[in-house]
Structure to design on (124 residues):
């Protein structure tokens, strides 16, 4: 390292602390202005309104999501275990398993249960 490298490290660390202070101020600002007021939250609850917040996902969605994540992990693990760039598993099997996992996760996110949303079919 040259004679000026110590000064360069000093400047880098000085700028780093400056940027971390800016990020810290921004985080405090957003937390302060985005937290709800406790008094208004108590007033809203006291009016007797019943909140109806249905669950976004059903247990079936979570099971499908878990299967999708498991497929992605298994695909990358199989690719890692073979440890060859031109191996059969790395080129053909693992990408198919990984894509199937991603598609399964997408299906789990987009699948809606008609009974939980209150939508009645016209056949009944």
């Amino acid at each position: 390292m040259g004679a000026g490298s110590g000064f360069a490290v000093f400047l880098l660390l000085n700028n780093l602390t400056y940027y971390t202070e800016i990020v810290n101020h921004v985080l405090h600002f957003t937390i302060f202005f985005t937290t709800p007021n406790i008094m208004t939250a108590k007033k809203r609850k006291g009016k007797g309104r019943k909140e109806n917040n249905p669950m976004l996902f059903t247990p079936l969605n979570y099971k499908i999501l878990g299967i999708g994540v498991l497929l992605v992990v298994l695909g990358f693990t199989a690719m890692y275990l073979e440890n060859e760039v031109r191996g059969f598993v790395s080129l053909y099997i693992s990408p198919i398993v990984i894509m199937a996992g991603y598609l399964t996760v997408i299906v789990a996110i987009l699948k809606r249960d008609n009974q939980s949303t209150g939508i009645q079919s016209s056949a009944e």
User: Anything to note?
Assistant: The longest helix spans residues 5-34. The radius of gyration is 26 Å. Helices lie at 5-34, 38-46, 59-82, 88-110, 114-117. The chain has a mean pLDDT of 76.
